[in-house]
Amino acid sequence: GQNIDQPTEMTATEGAIVQINCTYQTSGFNGLFWYQQHAGEAPTFLSYNVLDGLEEKGRFSSFLSRSKGYSYLLLKELQMKDSASYLCAVSKGQAGTALIFGKGTTLSVSS
Amino acid sequence: GAVVSQHPSWVICKSGTSVKIECRSLDFQATTMFWYRQFPKQSLMLMATSNEGSKATYEQGVEKDKFLINHASLTLSTLTVTSAHPEDSSFYICSAGREVRTDTQYFGPGTRLTVL
């Protein structure tokens, strides 16, 4: 079977750093994605990891360990607008294959 | 980034009617598009994979006769919810991929369906 786990909710304050973890067990693997979704809106692409290691993109970084089936999304210098749901998704196959999504982590940033 | 549009953005209909939702890739061609459904406070659940020029592939538990998918061109896929009922009320989102190497998918803005 396939399983993607991430915490349901997290809270943090402005300016802080938060790490959202994701563990996965899938029958195939062709990369891990992180998406941000604000309430009532569609997800927007944040990052893609297919090799082990850290990918940095501005305030957001994403890490992958394929041997551990583990990824995290790191958000630095948190802003109020970062309050959203963060979705971890795994691609199992070649391009053209649908993604399998975790249930999402709702992040609340307070002042 | 790639742009994917959906129309309508929201629709309210009576029980028993049919509703068509369009998904368009505006600046790229998409051989494959995906339709997801999202209930409140839930994650995205894949409904079907829409393939241009061929029949859609439906996920287990999704009724293909109720959710009709037509991928008429490389830039347009439509989802028709037939004989809609209140339990079909949900947020329907399509996505399309443009990269060959990766599966990065770009999502449309979603369609909020409310069935009375």
Describe the protein's architecture and organization.
The complex is a heterodimer of chains A (111) and B (116). By secondary structure, chain A is mainly beta. Chain A has no helices and eleven strands. Chain A has strands spanning 3-5, 9-13, 18-25, 32-37, 44-49, 53-57, 60-65, 70-75, 84-91, 99-101, 105-110. In chain A, the strands form two sheets. In chain A, strands 2, 4, 5, 9, 10 and 11 form a six-stranded mixed β-sheet that branches. Chain A has a five-stranded antiparallel β-sheet with strand order 1-3-8-7-6, with no helix packed on it. The model of chain A has no long low-confidence stretch (mean pLDDT 92). Chain B has 116 residues and is mostly beta strands. Chain B is built from no helices and eleven strands. The N and C termini of chain B lie far apart (36 Å). The mean pLDDT of chain B is 89. At the A-B interface, strand 5 and strand 10 of A face strand 5, strand 9 and strand 10 of B.
